[in-house]
């Protein structure tokens, strides 16, 4: 067992770290304040190859896999967790799913712009009345012979109103539940009948676009069905098992950012004539943050390693996601306490850490749903895929 990074992984880490410090860090506070999505960052990520993990080079992949992808996402999310969404939203979501389930024509057309950062990607399953219960979605795709006609709406879609290419899950067999869903590739720049409404009243993730998507007789070409008809639920679960790594890694990185900030503050801030880090109660808080962040990071790398080696990874991914999310929420909460009043000021990042940490408890499966997956696999009720 090797706990170190290879030379190539160290290079990826350094590249992503330098990129995040140079291209993302200078805009963090400004973009937070203005809720501004700085789209050119995505293109720059694409130019550097930071979007092309585990995808064949012939479609624009960077020749590297899960371990390297996780390493890169970690560095980006540490600086600003909103930008970790790009790797999930472009690569591990649509590109990887099209690569697995798509036709040659679909791969050639849609994967390269997602990996180069020319296109903003997305994936849409959630609806106003269908969140955890994916099989209860209502958006309907009617087979009109030479095209699909889409009606319905999706909620909380990351990248949504900025998206160029997205996966969309819809009902194709009424009353079929999970067995009646299919997956479609949507070219948002060439699909009349789609209205995209930004969700502006969000607790966090302010620079990341999140949207409602409304489909009113939206015409989708016949050839944009991804994978077999009525296999959408299976494709969706396959996709989530990959994109959830973005949550697990992003959450753990946020925990590390909050820990590092707290350490710096505890060493600088003096009270009662000494740095507050000398107080045992602060040390206890730092030690707890470190324990959780360290454990979550190992679990993230274990899940990535299982994926890299094409071994069952669903349970490990859920464990990594819940652990990362617990570490993030706890670390952000404690950081705000360690910073005292300054933690409550928007001039320090504690508020952002706390706002952004809370998303991880909900998106791509709530913590309850992930604990359910862990238990079901453990009890033998479902296989570990
Ligand atoms: C910032 C953000 C970005 C998002 N991005 C996307 C995206 O890109 N694409 C997309 O499709 N969706 C996206 N979502 C939606 C997200 O995936 C859903 O919100 C999530 O799956 C939960 O669904 P829900 O909000 O409807 O909660 P509900 O399913 O209504 O759950 C409400 C509560 O009930 C609990 N609960 C539900 N069922 C069970 C059960 N069986 N056992 C125990 N407890 C249960 C939940 O844990 C939760 O506490 C995003 C959400 C957010 C906040």
Write the layout of secondary structure elements.
Elements: H1 7-24, H2 28-34, H3 40-47, H4 66-79, H5 85-101, H6 104-116, E1 121-124, E2 140-143, E3 147-158, E4 165-171, E5 181-187, E6 194-198, E7 210-221, E8 225-226, H7 232-268, E9 270-271, E10 274-275, H8 280-308, H9 314-338, H10 350-359, H11 367-378
Parallel strand pairs: 1-4
Antiparallel strand pairs: 2-3, 3-7, 4-5, 5-8, 6-7, 9-10
Helix pairs in contact: 1-4, 4-7, 5-6, 5-7, 7-8, 7-9, 7-10, 8-9, 9-10, 9-11
Flavin-adenine dinucleotide is lined by residues 123-126, 131-132, 156-158, 205, 210, 359, 362-366, 368-369, 372.
Task: Report the helical percentage.
Answer: 40-55%
**Would you list the SSEs in sequence order as H and E?**
HHHHHHEEEEEEEEHEEHHHH
CATH architecture level-2 label of the largest domain: Up-down Bundle
Q: Which ions, cofactors or small ligands are bound in this entry?
A: flavin-adenine dinucleotide
| Low-confidence runs of at least 5 consecutive residues | none
Q: Radius of gyration in whole Å, from Cα?
A: 21 Å
Q: What value does the average pLDDT take?
A: 97
CATH topology of the largest domain: Butyryl-CoA Dehydrogenase, subunit A, domain 3
Q: Can you list the strand order of the major beta sheet?
A: 1-4-5-8
Number of domains: 3
Summed up, the helix count is 11
State the major sheet: 4 strands, mixed
CATH class of the largest domain: Mainly Alpha
In whole angstroms, the N-to-C terminal distance is: 23 Å
Let me know the CATH homologous superfamily of the largest domain.
Butyryl-CoA Dehydrogenase, subunit A, domain 3
Tell me how many strands there are: 10
Strand content: 5-15%
Structural class: alpha+beta
The best one-word shape is globular
